[in-house]
Every structure is written in C-alpha cells, then in structure tokens.
C-alpha cells in the first residue's frame, strides 16, 4: 500500500498509504466504499500469500506440500512483517533469546463467510477450511495454563541441547537465522512454559500440511482483511500508520507544522528558564 518513491518527510500519508486505492479499489455510490469483492483487491491479498507459497484452500489438489515448511514460513513472516504466528521469538539483553508459543489462539483469523467473500471459495470448501482452522486452534490452545504465574516455567538451554531435544520438530539454528540473520543471535535460549511449547510442536506435527499453511497464511492476512465503511479508510490507514510508523509519523507532523517563529519563541522561553535556574544556583535571589 506504500508509495516508496514519495519522501515520508514531504508527505508521509501518501508515502504510507498512497497505493491504498490500488489495493482496495473503491466504488462511488454517493460515498466512497471499499469493495472487498473487487478483483484487484483479491489479487493484492493473493500477492501477499505468494511471497510464501500458495493457499491450499485456493489451489486445492494442485497444492504441493513438499515445498512447505511451517516453521520456516513463520520465521520468514516474523523477519519481514514482525508478526509472530504460532511461535514468538525475541532477543533480550543481547545475551538471551526468549522463545515461547503464542497463546492467543482463541480468535478465529477468518470465518467461512470471509473465505467466500475475500477468496471466492465455494460454501462447502469455506466451511471445511474454517472447521479445520477451528480444530487446529483448539489443539494449539489445549495446553494453555490460563493467566497464572509463569514462575518456575522458564527453561534455559544452549542452542545445541535445545536442537537435540526437539530435532524431530524443527531446526532451531535455521529458524533463528531466518529471523535474526546468520550468527546474529545468542546461543542461550530461554524457553517459556516448555510444556505448552512442546504441546504446540506436537500439535503442528500431527496437523496436515495444508491445514498448517491455511492457518499461517490466513493469520498473516488478518490485518489486510478490511471491510471499510464510508469514511473508515482514512481512519484505518491513520491508525495503522501510528501503529507501525509512530516515530516517522511524529516527525512528519513536526515538519508539516513547524515554523521559524514558533521555534524562536520556544528557544527564547527556554533561555529565560535557563537564566532563572542559573540565578538560583548562583544564589542570586530575587
């Protein structure tokens, strides 16, 4: 949706959202409304998916499972989009990598109705896919321990030992390298709630690859599935701009509304305050 050729310092809104109308073509019926059924919008969603392969629900029997790895895909998504799907990995204090399984599996990424409207799936395929996603979420969430304390649920591993223990599930060295880059992560890993983590790995291992891929791809698209009402497009774009580009957005506002007179006034006030403090510190009371 961005227009990188436009400098964010000149026009940040256009820089961040200038291609919104191309990804979300609008129709004019008195008010502008996003047309979720527009072919260009659906193609834009498919383009995001194609960065990581194909959506099995869309291509059906033609989907090639041999080219898919769920943990490689979630690592690549985290590296590019910063979105944690299934596993959440962070570097803290430089020396440690904190690794945990996500616990927010209760909300469905999409409904059967969404699958029909956004992707053109038949009613039967949409219902089946939605049911498979629901079953997977239940399996992933089955090991959640509620909101209790995690005290005592931290397991510390060196990378080699963690790899040895879970070698049947994923390659941790490659997984972390895809996220953080080769040799740019600590070799000491802190596993949070290992019992739940192990359950998630077992659940993913027992889940058909097509369901894994549908879940990951559709979770990635959650924030792109916009059913905008009149006037909502600007609000949605503004909120996401603040969410993902807060510092740049603040600078853009500053650049737009700054003035030499205002800056001079602020500088003069600051100099007066400094002068008063200097007098106080030197004992020159009023």
UniProtKB/TrEMBL annotation:
InterPro entries given in the database record: MetalloPept_cat_dom_sf, Peptidase_M13, Peptidase_M13_dom_2, Peptidase_M13_N
Membrane topology per record: Single-pass type II membrane protein
Lineage: Eukaryota, Metazoa, Ecdysozoa, Arthropoda, Hexapoda
Pfam families hit by this protein: Peptidase_M13_N (PF05649)
Designated name of the protein: Uncharacterized protein LOC108039569
GO-annotated cellular components: plasma membrane
Signal peptide (from-to): none
Similarity comment: Belongs to the peptidase M13 family.
Gene name of the record: LOC108039569
GO terms classed as biological process: proteolysis
Gene Ontology MF annotations: metalloendopeptidase activity
UniProt-annotated location(s): Cell membrane
Domain Peptidase M13 N-terminal intervals: 118-281
